[in-house]
Amino acid sequence: MKWFEHLPDSWAILRTKQMFRLVIEKAPANNQMELLSVYTHIGVRPRKSLEQRGNKASTTDGYWVVKEGDIICNKLLAWMGAIGASHYQGVTSPAYDILRPIKSCNTDYYHFLFRTKKYLQQFKIRSRGIMDMRLRLYFDQFGQIPIPVPPRHEQDQIVAYLRAQDAHIARFIKAKRELIELLTEQKLRIIDHGVTRGLDPTVPLKPSGIEWLGEMPEHWDTSRLKYCVSRIHAGGTPDTGVDSFWSDSSDGTPWLLIGDVTRADRVVTSTKRLTQAGLLSKRLTVVPAGAVLYTMYASIGKAAVLEIDAAINQAILGLEPKCDVLLPEFLFFWLRSLERHIRNLASTSTQANLNAAKVKALPVFLPTLEEQRLICDWIKCECRIFDDAIARNEDEIKLIREYRDRLIADVVTGQVDVRGWQPGPEDMVDDAALAALDDNSEAVTDEEDGDGED
């Protein structure tokens, strides 16, 4: 296999096992060490800083000890980018492999290298398993992969250069995200006006009876959500360790995560699929197209219209409106209008959560069905300019990320020579600003962190 177009003459090529060794150092009982996880897109982070995105471990006794500068590899998701250098001392799940350098190197260089498309492809090719969801990359295969070895000072220069470029890109993304937030706020104002006041500015108003919602058109009714839906579907997660529950085939039933709901206003596809055995293992019902999905954990209070038949995980409810009472699209817009109120209704003992009882008790304003249709049409028309602007900015963020991926691949393989680069006044790296690079993280929110590895 021809790995590289060329490498600088001063660079060597070794196999991974010649640069890193697999270490297994068990943490002592009753340890108070930092629990770490490795996530796609953002690398290694303390679990406590992202605990809403995964399950907490009840104990870390017997977990693997991680030292600063180690590489942590999630065997199950390495091919998706769940690998990275640790800047922390701590412990991590035995489901992960810990790679410790045996030669002097800057492991941040290998953090960038291992997350390039070329290496992710190699991880997938060398992983074992009968389907994508159960592929595992073991060190006997990982260790065979060739890696470039620049001189140490060049590794340090590459890392400094890429971190500086990341800072520029992060500032760009942050500005775009702030603009998207402003556009979204304008959209929500339009939605809120439509579903709480209607389209006739001269219509008399009356108290809604709900203090935080204020007045409503005099001829509208109010109700609770549970009286406006014919069925509420709960979800669940089948055992990720049972291959027969998961399908790589288009014949499988789509199974939705929070990221699938929050990604767009309409759900038309899924990242994962279940077999019939997987559905039966948790007695999951299939939510029909036309239902409205609503999130209860992590990104709470987000709604989307379902346009495919699908099963859902336990963080989502599927709401089937009564066809003679409530249009799905009006319910979607109504739930969007409640977003700013939802956190006040959610449980905040550890993190903001809703539950089915609180969702059922949500108030709903009820215009006639014909008025609901008119309101939905008006909202879509008024929001089109904002939707288009949001889409353009999202596309620009996607393009700058693609540029970043290509730049990293070229620099870490020596195709772009950065030895003469010197940082300028605008190349300051602010670790807090780099957080903007973390927002492409749907995979983090619902990530299988592998703690249940068998």
Overall description:
The structure is a single chain. With 454 residues, the protein is α+β, with helices and mostly antiparallel strands. It has 2 domains: 12-172 and 402-445, Alpha-Beta Complex (Adenine-n6-DNA-methyltransferase TaqI, Chain A, domain 2), CATH 3.90.220; 221-363, Alpha-Beta Complex (Adenine-n6-DNA-methyltransferase TaqI, Chain A, domain 2). Helices cover 35% and strands 19% of the residues. It is built from 13 helices and 23 strands. A 5-stranded mixed beta sheet has the order 14-22-19-20-17. The protein has a 4-stranded antiparallel beta sheet with strand order 2-9-6-7. It has a 4-stranded mixed beta sheet with strand order 15-18-16-21. The chain is globular and about 80 Å long.
Strand-helix topology:
Layout: E1 12-15, H1 16-19, E2 20-23, E3 36-39, E4 43-46, E5 64-66, E6 71-74, E7 83-85, E8 90-92, E9 96-101, H2 107-114, H3 117-126, H4 139-142, E10 146-149, H5 152-197, E11 205-207, E12 215-217, E13 221-224, H6 225-228, E14 229-233, E15 246-247, E16 253-256, H7 258-262, E17 266-267, E18 272-274, H8 276-281, E19 292-295, E20 303-306, E21 311-312, E22 316-321, H9 328-337, H10 339-345, H11 356-360, E23 363-366, H12 369-412, H13 442-445
Parallel strand pairs: 16-21, 17-20
Antiparallel strand pairs: 1-10, 2-9, 3-4, 5-8, 6-7, 6-9, 11-12, 13-23, 14-22, 15-18, 16-18, 19-20, 19-22
Q: Do you know the CATH topology of the largest domain?
A: Adenine-n6-DNA-methyltransferase TaqI, Chain A, domain 2
Please, what is the CATH homologous superfamily of the largest domain? Answer: DNA methylase specificity domains
Report low-confidence residues grouped into runs of 5 or more. 440-454
> Assembly type of the shown chains?
single chain
CATH class of the largest domain reads: Alpha Beta
Total count of strands:
23
Largest sheet: 5 strands, mixed
